[in-house]
Structure formats: structure tokens, C-alpha cells
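Supplementary notes (optional reading)

For those who missed the lab, this is the record we used. Protein: ADP-ribose pyrophosphatase YjhB, NUDIX family. Length: 133 residues.
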Amino acid sequence: MSVLIDTVAWVRVEGGRILCARPRGKDVFYIPGGKREGAESDLETLLREIEEELTVLLDPRTAAHVGTYEAGAPGLPDGAVVRMACYTAEYRGELAPSSEIEEMAWFSYADRDRVPPVDQVLFDDLAAAGELA
């Protein structure tokens, strides 16, 4: 039986680099976002997770779906798949790592090997579209 890990992520690209975050106690960077809680919609999950992780408020009126990606990942049980629904959105506030996040970084395509497989698929799409340096 396969396991689906359902996540929502915020895609923020500036100057050819994408915003990534490294949670406390982990050595891997991720596209900011996280798992849905209960019956949350994608948008509700996105707004809550980004405020929790990066202390900014996303503007729900500007949210746009840019793609949904799926991939396995190291450390997951066999057959487990991460599904990541990706959205762009404008934000208010100052980007800053919260208590959950150790560090933020802006990655170019050259940093692709520093993120999990599902994030790498997004990196490939953004690079193909000319958005990632």
C-alpha cells in the first residue's frame, strides 16, 4: 500500500533564485510550506504554514497555482510519495525564520542537489521556464 504525504508549498522566486528554508534539526532545505491539517484547503494550509515558518502574511487574493509535483524521497517507506501543490503569492511583512526554521536561503539551479526529490522537479520546471538562474 502506498502512502501519500500531501503538502502545499510557497514558490517565491526573486532575481533568478528561489526561497528555501531549513527546519531546525534537519540538514536539508525545502521549499517553504508543509502538511495539510484536517480538512484545510490548499490556500488555508499555505497561509498558515508560511506565517508559522517565515513570519509573513501571504495575500490570498494573489495566490496562483503553479503546479503539483510528486516524487519519492529518501527516508520514506517504500511506495511513499510526497505530493507538493505549489503556489505563488505576494506577501506582507519581513521574511524571517521562525522558531521552526533554522535558516533561509535563496537557491539557484546550481543548488538543486540540496533539496529533496519533489523540490528538484519544481527546480527543473522553473529552470526550463527561465525563472531560475
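If you only remember one thing from this example: The CA atoms of residues 112 and 131 lie 14 Å apart.
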